[in-house]
Amino acid sequence: MPICLIDTQGERVAGKTPQGMLEAHQAGHCTELESKDAYAVKVHVWVGTSHIAGQGLFAAQTIKKGTRILQYIGQKIAKEETAERVYQGNQYIFTFNDRSDIDGKTLKNKARYINHSCDPNCEILITQRTIWIVAKRDIQAGEELRYNYGFTAKQYHCQCGASNCCGYILGEEYWDL
């Protein structure tokens, strides 16, 4: 399987495979993404098999707390369109602001591979222009990236396996309800 680096817009870019990831690439277990945050820090991540659910996004290097890892990208859609797409089964809609949401279903959106966890190592930063996935704490190379999806109802059972798991994909502020 050829190895290529892909930026946050899905374009191929030149670069080397991060040390320690070569075997996973040769075995065909992952693809790789290179992104830059607002401070031009290159962050390497890769898509691989998750112990939480399906595929997940993994750190290919140590990531320091506060680092903007990558953007949640996709089509900006009106709230009215959100309801229709959710009804059609789209699982990648991210609340953006009072007027619009981001449909992250595009394959260019590598952030869509980040799974929910009741013990997250990432958090969300919503700016006026975009949604960032940010390291909540230092993250080690090989560690799966995860954030709390923050759902408000006990609709979906959680499979994160965290010792503090509440049993549902639910924002922490709703655990005691």
Secondary-structure element order, as H and E? EEHEEEEEHEEEEEE
Flag low-confidence runs.
Answer: 1-40
Q: Calculate the mean pLDDT score and round it.
A: 78
Tell me the number of helical segments per DSSP (H or I, 4 or more residues long).
Answer: 2
Helical content band: under 10%
What distance separates the N and C termini?
48 Å
Domains, number: 1
CATH topology: Beta-clip-like
Q: Quick one: how many beta strands?
A: 13
Task: Please tell me about this protein's structure.
The protein has two helices and 13 strands; from the N terminus they run E-E-H-E-E-E-E-E-H-E-E-E-E-E-E. It has a single domain, classed as Beta Complex (Beta-clip-like). The protein is mainly β and 177 residues long. The termini are far apart.
